[in-house]
Request: fold
Amino acid sequence: MKFRFSQNVPMVPPYSQLGHAHNHRRLFSWYVKQFRTTSQARASVSGGSSNSQGNAFLVPGATVATLLMLGVLHARRLYDDRKVEEAREKGIEFEFQPDAKATFLRMLPLRSISRVWGFLTSVEVPVWLRPHVYRAWARAFHSNLEEAALPLEEYASLRDFFVRTLREGCRPIDPDPNSLVSPVDGTILRFGELKGAGSMIQQVKGFSYSVSSLLGDSLPMIAEGNTQDESSNGEQEKTQREKSKKSWWRISLASPKVRETVSACPMKGLYYCVIYLKPGDYHRIHSPVDWNVLVRRHFSGRLFPLNERATRTIRNLYVENERVVLEGLWQQGFMAIAAIGATNIGSIELFIEPELRTNRPRKKLLPSEPPNERVYEPEGVGVMLKKGEEVAAFNMGSTVVLVFQAPRLKSLKNSDASEFRFSIRLGERIRVGEALGRWHDS
Reply:
């Protein structure tokens, strides 16, 4: 976002280039004078005639506000990280326990606050100031600036810096065709196998959330002994989808659309992986495998923070927050990626659908409403993505939940059977292109 400025009002005070102490008072007086001039212009001139003078003070003000926000975020991150590290050293696992802060967060206009933050990060930063701001961010959140594809001076705003691309070769993709790779840089929070129709994922010790509510659709139900082939299975899925379009059979406060289950091919397990992106991480989402994206759902929910404290104090955190879900098929069956927004991260960009806009002002007061769904054309084929291809981007850190089918060992006696195995550990740092798990051909 760019602004036009009055040619009569300099962006940077003429004294800023002088480093003497006696100029500090002159510098302060210059800013006060500009502020008074801007205020008088707005008071005396109505309509658009005051915009040019008002905008003259906008960039310095927005830059100061942005730097203050960065300082607050850094202090909070240091405090939270210290508590988590101390708990891990003592072998303590936090349990779910709602507190007053969680109740207070529900009263705040977090969606509006996030839109304001998005506006501030979109303001163009003066070229001479860009390296200093971005290096300060990198020091605060441990970002690796050497991986940036462009010089720091070429990132016009903080938003451009957040969603920056990386130099070629920084994220090599695992070439093993029987591997599923991480779609993001982040920390492994949870992973495992889902069992049963009402599958749940543990948010934190003592509380779990429904996977169907997270995705807004039914999950494949594993039916051992079912000998349906893929063609009959696909026809049944199509029939069930037609039925589900006509009526909903269950309403959830956080996810209003939950559909009936569909039988899947035998010998397929259903797995999940939850990856948390910190503010300093690389913010783009890549495809974990070669697959076809058939459906996109956008849930216009809340925008709670997704840090460690929020996960153990806010019920259904991932289900209540705004999110974009991509669902489709890969060579092993079902595949879904849920990109979950958070405070100051309401904007989720989808590269395969650039016109999608998230965190828009809502007309209804209800925090939950039916998801906006789009079926990609051609129906049944959708959008084909290659392993490692860019899919989406967050404006800051957030969380990605991956739900997928993969080969499962039916019997221990059958040593030739293919089985998917995770190659990660809880709390491990992982990067785009590194394997989450592998299987072998039966």
